[in-house]
Amino acid sequence: MKKEVYLYAPCDGVIKDITFIQDEAFASKALGEGIFIEPSSNIFHAPIGQAKIALIADTKHAYYFEQEDGLQLLMHIGLETVGLNGAPYKLLAQVNDNVTWKSPIVEVDFDLIKNNKCSLATPIVMDVNSTKNWVFKALKLNGKVKQGDKIGVWTYEEKINQQEIIEIVRSKGKYQKVAEQILAAIGGKGNQNSVYNCMTRLRIKIIDQKLVNCDELKKIEVVKGLNQNGDELQVIIGGEVYKIKDEVINILENKTTSNDKVVKTKTPFRKKIMPAVAGIVTPAIPVLLGTGILGGIQAMLVAFGVLQAPGLGETVADLNLWSAIFYVAGKVGLELIGLIFIYNTVKYLGGNPIMGIFVGMVLTSRHLFGTSWVLFNLFGNPVGIQSYEGTVLPMVAAGFVVYYLDKWVQKWMPTAVDIVFRPGLVMLVTVIVTLFTVGPVLKIVEQLLSQFVLILGKLPIGIGVGIFALLWQPLVLTGTHVAVVQAVSLPMTQIPAQPSAMYVAVNIAVFAQIGAVLAVALRTSNQKTKQTAYGSIPGAIFGITEPAIFGVNLPKLWPFLYGCLGAFIGGMFAGIVGAEQITRTGTGILSYLGFGTPLNTAMGLSAAGIALGSALLLTICFYKERPSEITGLKKMNTIVLKNIITENQNVELKNNFETILKLEKANLTDNKVYEILVIKLAKLEQKKQLLVEWTRHCNIWETPYNTFRRFIFLWQLKDKNLTAILMN
């Protein structure tokens, strides 16, 4: 296939060979192939038949033109004119304008350029990134031309033998090929802002209707017809529409496979875990933070007697209106948090998250509450079908089942019935698999853990309470904590009631995670992480640790583990001094209202403080947001040296490298200086983020709350010069 692109004279003048221009970069063709013109008329037009102005330099002397096929052209009016700051140039067109060789682009003051002893020579070259396989031929060298004359031509000839064509066709699936044809016919990927499907039609929201080529669309084999409804183009396909839509989305999101032969490196499983955790957890942070704050406010207002909470045997219907509203707002986010996580899981994997929501609604339905569907008994307790309200990991597991089951069914189900039967089949099977496998397994784990915890309570010198405090937050992650907490709180519900030493560990674990998240907030240089960490603390004080755990500690892993270790230390102290919970009250700080005597309360609070302090110190001392420059350099050098030793037995090369390592060790001071500079740069970046925050809020700081935020901001900034400027 042969292509030709003509170069047109942008103005009157004389055409010359690019190698004779008085600029080494252009003369050496480092910036591309082309010519230059000595202009005699001062209005410059586009030098190409049809293109878009992709870029105009701030000093108005250089212009990039781009064709639809990606070919880019640079026109540079004058040499050494950057110092004139655009003064000689009067723009007649703007960036993103579609232009032709007849379109005036800029008017130039030749006298101003000459008076500043700058050259008027104007090189026009094809961008160096576009020149591969293109050959340029000048048509009127050393001759006078008029604006619009053809002065050169770029030629591109693509030769593909029959075998190569077959391989290209084979490399793309049928639906990917159709998706590419549809996108090309509607005017490209950029001419749409929404793509979805119904039973038989691919529905595309079109930006510019003039770019849509209906004739080309109708030529596509699977297209049965077209229908226009306002700005929505409906491409009638039939049962295959679902698969074509998926391929269109893959192309738009750059998920299609490449034809290039790329060596794929297998990522170790351990390196996949944390990105997956972040991808699933991070979108849930706003819900977790919001629920944490609302739950904390509700608990505090109940403690002060402003609101009511349901008592034994009561429901929300027994409360007054405002008590009911705050109770539901503070509880439902955590009770149905599994819906958020199953949605995020399916979306992260690239499946249909709406199917995940449906499965989540079934699994969290209160219709599943009760013990009427018992499968068997363990330790005298029933194991059967249960609701997954308030659980996280079972819902994440269900999300994986939805995604992989959907992919498997899609492979074998006939296209004609795919969209009708596949979603229902996948959702039903996922629900059944989860209810009859994950649920009973977790129930068995709950019963075993309950027995294990009761055994722990008999261990001496506080070891049992410490271990239980260490395990509490991991139990919360699995959703098995519900049965366990019932076991440790059982003494307090008996008649007569008896104190529970093990229940103390629950709130010790809470305060340990507060210590870990506070340490992250103090150590991090990332403003977003800092805000999330501080925002999670108020709710955590009242026992709602999900924002702190899922929003900060768990995605970073080590703070979560340090929090668990801090809980162990605080739990051992509580066990040694004999701190006990007398009655169940609230959670978090409110739980200490149920410790009875002042001495017992003081011991319980001391244990919580020790747990918080231990987790805080451990995280501050050992958690690193990123490896130090010296540590990273040493690790990289060790890897390189190992490769040299194992894969290259060149002794001289190995000795030379070891000599370099010795020199590096002798210059650790320089590495340390570099690391300090990197840390300073991170702090400057943090201040920049704070300045952005200042700008965003500067127009709404007339309220008392925002005035308070203003002073917090200035305190965070800790820069007297900047603070003085902002205050003025």
UniProtKB/TrEMBL annotation:
UniProt keyword list: Cell membrane, Kinase, Membrane, Phosphotransferase system, Sugar transport, Transferase, Transmembrane, Transmembrane helix, Transport
Gene Ontology process terms (BP): phosphoenolpyruvate-dependent sugar phosphotransferase system
PROSITE patterns per UniProt: PTS_EIIA_TYPE_1, PTS_EIIA_TYPE_1_HIS, PTS_EIIB_TYPE_1, PTS_EIIC_TYPE_1
Membrane-topology annotation of the record: Multi-pass membrane protein
Residue span, PTS EIIB type-1 domain: 176-258
Highest taxon listed in the record's lineage: Bacteria
NCBIfam families to which the protein is assigned, alphabetical: PTBA
Protein name: PTS system, beta-glucoside-specific IIABC component
